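> forwarded from #structure-qc
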């Protein structure tokens, strides 16, 4: 009876182990999902640089950016923002690795 009770207790452990390994696999796949083989370009109607003079004092042109959403990168148009206490805006860029390209978002300096 001792041998069989050990096997019965081991079966739920195997199931739990399989579930944990499967979830870890999905997590790893999700982490790699933000890499793309080629850098996408912005649409013609997206203004890369500031579309004109600043509309108010301390205005800084932010963007455009790329945002990873629902399994793909989507464009986020640029906008004017108040510089506030920051020195300026560091533009986002594509970073290349052996996995592919990944967008590094801009940030306030």
């Amino acid at each position: 009876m001792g041998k069989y009770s050990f096997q019965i207790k081991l079966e739920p452990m195997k199931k739990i182990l399989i579930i944990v390994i499967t979830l870890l696999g999905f997590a790893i796949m999700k982490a790699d999902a933000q890499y793309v083989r080629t850098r996408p370009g912005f649409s013609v109607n997206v203004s890369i640089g500031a579309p004109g003079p600043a509309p108010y004092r301390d205005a800084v042109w932010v963007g455009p950016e790329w945002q990873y959403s629902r399994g793909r990168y989507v464009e986020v148009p640029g906008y004017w923002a108040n510089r506030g206490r920051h020195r300026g805006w560091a533009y986002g860029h594509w970073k290349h690795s052996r996995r592919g390209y990944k967008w590094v978002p801009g940030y306030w300096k």
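QC bot note: The helical segments are 2-32. Residues 79 and 94 are 20 Å apart (CA to CA).
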